[in-house]
Amino acid sequence: MLRHPFLAVALAALLVANSSYAGHHAGGMADDDLLELQHVQEEAVQEEAVQEEAVQKGAVQKETPQHVQKQAPHTVQKTVYTPQWVTETRKVMVTRYVHEEREGVKTVMRCVPEQREVQRSCTVMVYERRTKTVPVTQYRPVYRQVEQQYAVQVPEWTQREVQYTVMVPHVEARQGVRQVTQWVEEEVVKTVHRDHGHWEVQMVQVPCYSKRLFRWRSCCDPCCSTRTVCQKVWVPNIVEEEVTVTVCRPQIVEQPYEYQVTVCKPEVRTKMVNVCNMRTEMRTRMCTVVQYERVVTQREVCYTVCVPQTRTWTEVVTTYRQVAEQVPYTYTVCVPVQEEQEIEVQVCQMVATTIDVPVCTVTYCRPALRRLRCL
Predict the structure, then answer these.
(1) How far is CA 345 from the centre of its chain?
(2) 375 exposed, middle or buried (CB, 10 Å; 0-12, 13-18, 19+)?
(3) What is the b/e burial string over 99-132, where b = at least 16 CB atoms within 10 angstroms of the residue's CB?
(4) Which of 17, 136, 284, 300 could form a disulfide with 29, with the two C-beta atoms 3.0–4.6 Å apart?
(5) How far apart are CA 289 and CA 94, in angstroms?
(6) CA geometry: angle at 373 spanning 368 and 375, to 5°?
(7) Closest CA to 78 of 140, 5, 23, 32
(8) Hey, which residues does 234 pair with through a beta bridge?
(9) How far is the C-alpha of 229 from the C-alpha of 207, rounded, in Å?
(10) What's the N-to-C CA distance of the chain in angstroms?
C-alpha cells in the first residue's frame, strides 16, 4: 500500500482517466499525458520501495514530502450517454408462398402392339409300340414226401428232499428303565385378598322413566322429574390373609420295568419238492418237401419306345414398339410473394444525461509530473 499522499493522488487520477477514456471515448486525457502519468507512477513506486528498505535498515527516517500542494476539489458538469431500450414499430418485407397451377407438356412413351407371322419348329418325342421275342426263365415247384427225424424234449418228474431256512418269531422278556412323572403333595403359604364387605340400604336420587308409545322417556324430556328411592348397595372391605394350600408338583423318577420283544430266529427245515428233468427223444415223421425246377421258354412281349419327330407350324406373334407422345398436364408450384408487414422490435437508444463530476487539482514540483487532474 502506498504511504505517500502524492502517490495516492496520482493513482486516483490515473484510474479516473482510464475509466473515463474507456467508458465515453471522449473528454479524457490524451495518449501522451497518459504515458507520462504511467512513467511518473513507476518512478514513484521505485522511490517508495527504496525508502521502505532504508526505513527497515534504520538508516533513513521516513518523512512526508513537502513538495506536494493540494487545492480544494470542485465539480464540473459532464454529459454521459445511458443505453435505454424502447419498442418501435417498423415495416419489413416478408416473403409469402402462394400455390399456383401451371400447364406443361411432358413426353410419354406408349407401347404400340404389332402382329406378324413366325415359322416355328420343334422336336417332340412320339411314343411307338413294338414287339420282340425274349427268353423267359420260370421256376416250377415239385412236391415229394420224405422221412425226417426230429428231437423232442420229454419231461420226467421226480421228488427230491431239499432244505430251506425260515425265520421263526420268538417272544423274549427284557429289562429296561423308564422315566415316570410322579405328583408330590406340598403345602405352600399364599397371600390372598378377601372381600369382607356388607350390604347397606341407601337413599339415592334417580330419574323417573315413563313408558309412552312403546318407548322409554329419560330425564331429557321436560315432563320428566327425579325421585328418591331406597337402593341396596354393596360396601366392599378388602382384607389380606395368609392361607396354607396343598399343591401337587411333578417329579420325574426312574423306574425299572419289564417288556417283551419279538425276535425272529433262523430255523432249517426239510421238505419234498417235485423236480422236472427234460429228456431228449428222437422221433420220425413224413413231411412234404418243395423243390423248384428251372424252365426256359420263348415269349413275345410288347414295349414302347420314344421316337424323335420334327414338327413345323406358323403362329402369330405380337410385339410392342415404344412410341413417344407429347401429353399436356397441370402442375402446382409455390410462387414467392413479397409483402410489407409491421412488426415491433426492441431498439437501444443512447440518452444524454448531464452529471456533476468532482475535480481535484494536485500540483507536484517535480518536472516529470506538473499537474494531475481527476476527471
Answers:
(1) 49
(2) middle
(3) eeeeeeeeeeeeeeeeeeeeeeeeeeeeeeeeee
(4) 17
(5) 120
(6) 140
(7) 23
(8) 199
(9) 10
(10) 23
Could you tell me the residue ranges of all domains in the chain? 5-73+360-373
In the block, residue with C-alpha cell 427225424: 149
Residue 71: left (phi > 0), alpha (psi -120 to 50), or beta?
A: beta
Q: Which residue carries 354393596 as its cell?
A: 234
User: What tens digit of pLDDT does each residue of 312-325 get?
Assistant: 999 899 988 888 88
How many angstroms separate the CA atoms of 228 and 234, rounded? Answer: 19
Q: Residue 269 in contact with residue 164, Cβ under 8 Å? A: yes
Angle (CA) 271-276-280 rounded to 5° is 155
Q: How far apart, in whole angstroms, are the C-alpha atoms of residue 183 and residue 246?
A: 12
What pTM does this model have? 0.23
- Residue 292 corresponds to which amino acid? Y
In the numeric block, the cell 418237401 is attached to 289
Question: Which cell numbers hold the place of 168?
Answer: 421263526
